[in-house]
Amino acid sequence: MVGVLDCNSVGFIGLGAMGAPMAKHLATKLPGEVKIFTFDIVETIIDGICAEYPDKVYKGSSPKDVAEKSDIIITMVPEGAHVRAVYLDENTGICSTDISRKLLIDCSTIDTATSLAVKDHIVQNFPTALFYDAPVSGGVIGAQKGTIAFFLGCAEDDPNLPRLIHLLGVMGKQIIPCGGPSLGLAAKLSNNYLSGVIAIACSEAMNMGMRSGLDPRVLAKVYGAGTAQNTICDQFNPVPGVCREAPSTNGYRNGFKVQLMRKDFGLAVDMARRVKADLALGDAGLGVYDGASKDPRCRDLDSRVVYRYLGGNENWQNKLQK
Ligand code: NAD
């Protein structure tokens, strides 16, 4: 057993855009004797990371196989259906083997109901196992830099918190305990709802101001100085050319894909309905992200491409030069 982490092996399932860099931090920063077992339905991904870290990262044949070999198992897959398959499949799932006393952490952004169903299954069948939701924020670049934030579904006085902070701290910067099971997800979904609504409102406000004759840089300054101040406007402005580093200025590339925002926004609207929180902007916002994620001019681009979807002028610099 190794230090506060109390484990000899960590499993990682789902090594996509986020999972792969997260697993690489574990591979390079965990003590030499800790082995990492990996699984992804795309076999070449696993072969690649195993070749990159020989004698450290090993290939598992299924989530069950990874669970059998690991003391701690982290999962990072796209949606609730994938989380169900990874944990609950009768033949290949994590829970199809004895996971007593193991620590399981799901970092996927999914609906709270699925997360609670997985937790209930684990509590009933393996009372000594621990399961936490821990969705992340900070994007692919944050995952690569090791600066992502974890919204952890656990109480501040949970006795396992120091161990969780130690482990997640290897892959990210901020670890925020959100109160209890599924509350990490509830926090993440409400956060993305807010960020998604702000991006639409910022696009609309910029568009109406620019059509009235204003330079978007002046508009951004005005919002920044007043009550409309927000990070989307200041750092991720949807209008190309306002923020030098923003995805919009770089062809809306390397950001948070509009389809992912559509997924998270939809999950947030569903959650609000379930907990009976009225939304004035929910259906309208969902319509925008749904439309943009299907629009070939916007698909696969940063979610702030809603500015383009809503008819914003991207060539304003040409017009100003005339
Ligand atoms: P991704 O599609 O790049 O990666 C997901 C990986 O999971 C893929 O490699 C896929 O093959 C694998 N997978 C799917 N089903 C599987 C299964 N049954 N068993 C094993 N592996 C399986 O997605 P991503 O961008 O890494 O996102 C993962 C999660 O993180 C999502 O829930 C997403 O919403 C969330 N997230 C993403 C970002 C981002 O900027 N990409 C930011 C924050 C949170």
TrEMBL record:
Q: Which GO terms describe its molecular function?
A: 3-hydroxyisobutyrate dehydrogenase activity; NAD binding; NADP binding
Q: Which Pfam families match?
A: NAD_binding_11, NAD_binding_2
What EC number(s) is this enzyme filed under? 1.1.1.31
Keyword field: Branched-chain amino acid catabolism, NAD, Oxidoreductase
Any idea where the 6-phosphogluconate dehydrogenase NADP-binding domain is? Answer: 10-178
Similarity comment text for this entry = Belongs to the HIBADH-related family. 3-hydroxyisobutyrate dehydrogenase subfamily.
Name of the molecule in the record: 3-hydroxyisobutyrate dehydrogenase
> Which organism is this entry from?
Byssochlamys spectabilis (strain No. 5 / NBRC 109023)
Q: Source taxonomy lineage?
A: Eukaryota, Fungi, Dikarya, Ascomycota, Pezizomycotina
